[in-house]
Structures are given as C-alpha cells and as structure tokens.
Amino acid sequence: MTTAPPTLAAATGGTDLLLWVAVPYVCLAVFVVGHVWRYRQDQFGWTTHTSQLLEHRWLRWGSPLFHLGAFMVIAGHVVGLAVPASWTEAVGISEHTYHTTAVWAGSVAGVTMVAGLGMLCARRLLTRSIRLGTDRSDKLLFPLLSATVLLGITATAAHNVFGGGYDYRPTVSVWFRGVFTLRPEPEAITGAPLLFQLHALTACLLFAAWPFTRLVHVWSAPIGYLVRPYLVYRRRATTARPTARLGTSAAERRA
Amino acid sequence: MRVMAQIAMVMSLDKCIGCHTCSVTCKQTWTNRTGVEYAWFNNVETKPGVGYPRRYEDQEHWKGGWMLDKRGRLVLRSGGRLKRLLSLFSNPDLPSIEDYYEPVTYDYDNLVSAPAGKDIPVARPRSVLTGKPTAITWGANWEDGLGGAPEHAGGDPNLTGAWAQKVKFEFEQTFLFHLPRLCEHCLNPACVSACPSGAMYKRVEDGIVLVDQDRCRGWRMCVTACPYKKVYVNHATGKAEKCTFCFPRIEAGQPTVCSETCVGRLRYLGLLLYDADRVGEAAATPDEHDLLDAQRGVFLDPHDPEVITAARESGIPEDWLDAARRSPVYDLVMRYKVALTLHPEYRTQPMVWYVPPLSPVLDAVDVAGGNRDDPDHVFAAVTRLRIPLEYLAELFTAGDTDVVAGVLMKLTALRSYMRERTLGEPGDETALKAVGLTARQAEDLHRLLAVAKYQDRYVVPAAHKEDAAALTAMENRCPVESSVPAEPRKVMLGIPTLRRRTTGDHG
C-alpha cells in the first residue's frame, strides 16, 4: 500500500520519501492501531481527565476558548486541505476571495485557540496541584500540541498576514490529499516554506501520539445524549463487559 | 405496573451521637485512595450548619436536582440537554476543591526522625494536593457539634425566612442534631439523567445507583446535577465516583459498611417494591408539599396479591418478596409513616429516609420550663415552638411543618405510652389514639425503633444464584478500579499514576 511507484522514487530524494511518505503513513498506522488497542485495553483510562475541581478560574476562559478555536481551526483545515482549488473555483469563489476569507477566519480561529491553549498550559504549570497531577502523556501532549499550533499560526502570520502570501493549495494540500488517496505526492510539499513543512510534521507526530493521550476524549463527544432517555436502568448481570464475557464462558463450560 | 425492588435505608436521627464511625469505616473501605482524599461517600453533618460541601443545599447557586418549568414539565435545574453539552468545556456550576476542603496529611515521620533538640517534634499538616505545608482552615465536619457555628452556621441554606432570624438571635439556647448523609440512590436520579456518556445507571434488581468506571468520560455533569453533592470527581483518574451502597456486601446479603459499624444502631436496611412506571409522574407533582405522599404512592404493598403476581412477572424472586414483606424500611416509611426524605423538593425521590429527631423539641421544652415527660407539654411544644419545627420542615418536608409535627407527636406519644408500660402501669392510650396508633402498633413500632436486633434492622436478601457467574467475576477485584481482567498488564501512557507521594520531599 505504502510502496510508491518507481517514478516517484526517481523524482524525489530519500529524505523526502522518509519525511513525506514514510512518516505520515507510520503515524497514521500508529493512530489507527493505537486507538483500537487503547479502546480495547484501557476503557478505564479513556477520559477527559478533568482538572476543573482543582482550578476553575483559568479554565473557565481557557477551555472554551481553546475548544471553540480548535473546532474552527479543524473546519478551516478541512476546507483548505481536503477541498481542491478547482472545486472552489467551480462554485465561483475566486482565489482572492478564498485567500482573504481564509486569512481572516484562520487568524481569528488561530488566535482564539492559541489564547485558550496558552491559558490551559499556564494553569497546568502554575497551579501546583495540577502540575503534580500531570502524567507522562500530558507531558508529551501539551508541548506537541503547542508546537503544532504555534508553527501553524506562525506560518500563516509570516507568509499570509505579514508576508507576500503563500498559496498552499497547489502544494501542501496536494501532498495531504495524496496521502489519503494512496497516491503519495511527496514532491508537492518539498518546495513549501519551512514553517509549513514543520507544521505538517509536528501534526503527523500529534496524530501518532493521539491515541495514547487524553485527546481520545474527542471520540467520546456525547452527541447521543441529545436523544437518549433520561433514566438509565441496567441489569446487574450485564454491568461490565468482562463480567458478561466471563458469564458467557461459564455458561459454555456448563454446556 | 412495572415492579422493581430497591434496597433502601432509614436512619433514626434521635439515636445519632455524631461519632463519625460510619464515615471513617466508609472512608477506609472506599475512598482511602489518591484522587478521592477529599471525598466522603458517607459524612455526618451537624445541623444547623452549612454542610459538606459548603452550602450544598443552596440549589439557586449549585443548580442541583429537578424543577418544574413554566409549563409544569420536570426538567433538570442545571438546564436542558443542549445547554449541558455546551457547558462541557467548562462547567459553571461545579464545586471546586475549596468548597469541599483541601485534604491534608501530617509529617508523621518527623516525630521519629527529628534530631534531638529542646522542643518536642510535631507532625505538621501538609496538603495532599501540593505536598506543601498548609494551614487547615476547613474540613468535611468543620462545624462538628456546632464548633464555629456563630461564625459559619448562619450560612445554612435552610435558615431562610423570618423565623431564621430567631435561630441566630437565640443561639445561646441553641439546638443541634447530627445528620449522616450518603448517596440517596434516588428513584429519579438527577445524576444519571445528566450523565452525557450514559455511564451512570440504576440497577434494576436492587435500585443501587452506580458509575460504570469504564464508560465514564469525565464530563462531570453528575456532580452538578446531584443536589446532595454525593458524586465526586476523582482528580487522579478523571472519573466520577460515588457511594456504591456497598453493593458487594449487599449482594452477599450483608448490610453496608456504614450500617454494619453504626454505633448507635440507628440504620435500617430493607426492600421497598415500587412501580417504575409511576416514578416520573410522582416526581412532577406540582405542589412541593405533596411530593412526600406522591413518592409513598409509588411504593407497592408487598402483601397485596396483585403486587405479588406483578412482581413475579417482573422476575423478582420469592425470597426477595419474602424479604420485602419483612422489610423494616417498609414498616417505617409506609406502615407507620415516621420516616421522611431529605429535601423532597429536589424531586429526585431519595431512598435514604430519616426519622426526624425529637431531641431539639425536647430541649426546647426544657428551656421553656416544661416537663419533657408530659406528652401534653411536648405536644404543646411541638406546635408552639416554631424554631426547631420550621427548621426540620425545611430539611425534611419542603417546609410543611404539619407533617414534621405529626411525626414528632407520634414519637412523643409512643415514648410516653411505652414509659408507662415499662413502669408497670397499664398505659394511657389517649395520646396514642390522638396520633392514630393502637397499643399493639405502638409496641411494634417501639420494638422496631428501640430494641430491634441485627436481623430485624437489616433484612437484606442475597443476590440470586442465577447471577452467580457474574458475581464471581466481580469478587476478586476492587469495583472502582479498572474492570480489565486480572491478567498482568504494563502501565502505558495515558493511564494515571494512582499513587502520588505525599511525604513532601518531591520538588
């Protein structure tokens, strides 16, 4: 699956293949397998790991800012990376309109997220009880997430807000889509500015780390709560999965 | 009719001496772990007092329990489903650790390892959360026996209205009683209804409300929704924990740890059969003063042949039906109607019931120069001395003083009648008649309240053999730990370190 066509190897150097083909696929594989493993092995550890009990003054602003900013940033990345430029042009959005909207909306989203994340990092560092409760996965997650977010917003600021403007859609976006369509195009991103490249690489690492951190709570967003009945009754015999499993095996032994 | 059984508790508050044995044994059993140092599944409060966590009864502030909206529908006070999801990022109504208290340990090591010197070494308190020396300024029973009450007890949310001024004014002639509290294992649990992940549930077989530790995702909405603040966040695991009603013991036919170790023998455990289909309707009763009767209306008479047939259809086994007929809880709640719930106006239909204390009224009789052995004096006091009565009514009947007065008069008549009988007199049944008791009933109630033995106080049927396979799967592990089978596993990233050093020598 991950083996590139021969022409690809000829056109790009070994380092580029490693960085823009091997690393993304390895990270994605860790992302998928890691989630399956964690979900099966560690339901008990699958939590937001809330620390609001210990500190709420910073969290009250930092957490909503971070999460809302993150939603906007993710939406922006979906539009910018997954949607080809030809599609937006086909519906009559000119490159200039797209670029202006993207820079403005992206800046608002990015600043919101950075501000929120900054506050969350600050309370984690400054509140002693939370700092002591920070486990190894947090010590990996917070720097990695901060690096990714900061590189992303710096790239946008340096090139598109204050710089001459860099259109990532024919380059970074093409590489990104190539990874998912199983037709990797590493040469598409090799010419991109360093900040964009670093941002893409830290993002890959973030995805690899995802299943082993508290980020897994994203997949437990409780949307089903909107429609379920208020009262939940459960029978004792089915209170926990291992219990049910052992119950079955006991029944099988009897049979 | 959908018959379900619930194991419920009654506490006779006159017998509580506030020794905290229930709290301590509960803590040693369930919450002596990192992350829940501050949590007391069972605690004993002195009333009047602000309670634990501070002012938890102030639902205007904490938004616990249910209420009726403008159209008379039953809604969670903390808001609807969408509002709850929108407050996932930051829950505006979550108590902070300061509202409970900062848990501490002591430098015990210093007592033996301090170098020789002029002064006797002391064990200084250290915060368990930060490892730093700290000053202890609050605790779960800070106001024990009204300690510090002149400073704090005025903050008791039950002290509202004009009569409350009088309580504060006459504090030197004060009254107090102890109130042991644990999870109410409600029929209409607000915590379960507020849980976004559906991790909390009420067990069909015995009504115990539990948190599935594997499904809890740490959204902490249960803490807000519970008006009794009896769900806690474990800050080490990031999951909710609560009183389990000692289900492993209950399943084995044993009383809960708090009941087992109760020095005053004031706790009763027994079954109540109820109609699950009527719970919602009863909880939505418009007038708060009718909530007590509405909840009693949900319970079913275990002697009624129709109920027995329906219970069999629901799969309730025969020995459970037999236990329901012998239930001391049914007698106190339904037959003699001397047990009341704590704050019925929260509309959760709690299943831990209280026989209100007569002692504050008797104290008041003494203060007024009356004879506490004369039922006429006490009857007069019950109706005339508004302070304790209004206060008890705020706690147990949503402010309806008539109901509390009725129960207290019943207890007074019972005392006076049984005193006469014990002294060899025939016993004057006039007072009994006035409160609707026959001589035989009085003797039965007296036996239940005063002399009941272990097997009369705790009628707990064991869980059923059909479930034995499921139960053996549970017995070799701690129910609040991971339910992953006992095979050895490596601790990987993301799994919280469950032990934190609290000796204070870390950086």
Automatic annotation (TrEMBL), chain A:
GO biological process, one term: nitrate assimilation
Pfam families, A to Z: Nitrate_red_gam
Subcellular location: Cell membrane
Residue sites binding heme b per the record: H67, H77, H199, H217
Superkingdom as given in the UniProt entry: Bacteria
Signal sequence segment: none
Main location: membrane
Cofactor dependence: Mo-bis(molybdopterin guanine dinucleotide); heme b
Transmembrane segments: 17-37, 58-82, 102-120, 140-162, 194-212
Keywords: Cell membrane, Electron transport, Heme, Iron, Membrane, Metal-binding, Nitrate assimilation, Oxidoreductase, Transmembrane, Transmembrane helix, Transport
Molecular function terms, GO-annotated: electron transfer activity; heme binding; metal ion binding; nitrate reductase activity
Record's bilayer topology term: Multi-pass membrane protein
Record-annotated NarG-like domain positions: 17-236
GO CC annotation terms, alphabetical: nitrate reductase complex; plasma membrane
PANTHER family referenced in this protein's UniProt entry, alphabetically: NITRATE REDUCTASE PRIVATE CHAPERONE, REDOX ENZYME MATURATION PROTEIN REMP FAMILY (PTHR30598), RESPIRATORY NITRATE REDUCTASE 1 GAMMA CHAIN (PTHR30598:SF3)
Physiological role: Does not seem to have nitrate reductase activity.
Family that this chain belongs to: In the N-terminal section; belongs to the nitrate reductase alpha subunit family. In the C-terminal section; belongs to the nitrate reductase gamma subunit family.
The protein's name in its UniProt record: Nitrate reductase-like protein NarX
Species of origin: Streptomyces cupreus
Lineage start: Bacteria, Bacillati, Actinomycetota, Actinomycetes, Kitasatosporales
Gene: narI
TrEMBL record, chain B:
Keyword line: 4Fe-4S, Electron transport, Iron, Iron-sulfur, Metal-binding, Oxidoreductase, Repeat, Transport
Cofactor: [4Fe-4S] cluster; [3Fe-4S] cluster
Domain 4Fe-4S ferredoxin-type: 7-36, 173-206, 207-236
A molecular function (GO) term: nitrate reductase activity
GO BP of this protein: anaerobic respiration; nitrate metabolic process
Taxonomy, superkingdom: Bacteria
A single GO cellular-component term on record: cell envelope
Subcellular localization, as worded in the UniProt entry: Cell envelope
Protein name: Nitrate reductase subunit beta
Species of the source: Streptomyces cupreus
Lineage, highest ranks first: Bacteria, Bacillati, Actinomycetota, Actinomycetes, Kitasatosporales
